[in-house]
Amino acid sequence: MPERETDWIAYLPHSEPFLFLNEIISMECGVEGNAVWRVDGNEAFFRGHFAARSVVPGVLIGEALAQLSGIVGAHAGEPRPESRADTVPGFLAHVDVRFFKAVEPPASIKLHSTLTRTLGAIRQFEVDACCDGETVARGSLMLSLPNAK
What we know:
The protein contains 1 helix and 6 strands, in the order E-E-H-E-E-E-E. It is mainly β. The chain has a single domain (16-144), classed as Thiol Ester Dehydrase, Chain A (Roll). A 6-stranded antiparallel beta sheet has the order 1-2-4-5-6-3, covered by helices on one side. A hairpin with a 3-residue loop joins strand 1 (23-28) and strand 2 (32-39).
């Protein structure tokens, strides 16, 4: 019998309008994950961010990578949380992401995160974001997940 699909996004403590993942493509808790964030150009943040030429704010791409990383790192060894209440509350501790190209809507941003190190509550990840086959951002980030299992 196939394993049931897990709606990993539902386990994030984020909600609209601050949820930047539309779909989890693959997830191996404690190892790595892939997701997609689709922007169509009608999102509220575009009204004030280079209004004449819409560009996805880099800080939001970084946040999307952090949201994916939170799913990857929060449930290492726990393949399926029982409920949203079991989600590990945490916060972004450090970001070192470089941006190589602006992303203009409409766009489908492919996100990747790999857990590279765990030290107590701190999880370090290597992350990247691609759009139209090109890397638009790459770097590392750290999350503090004090209640992670």
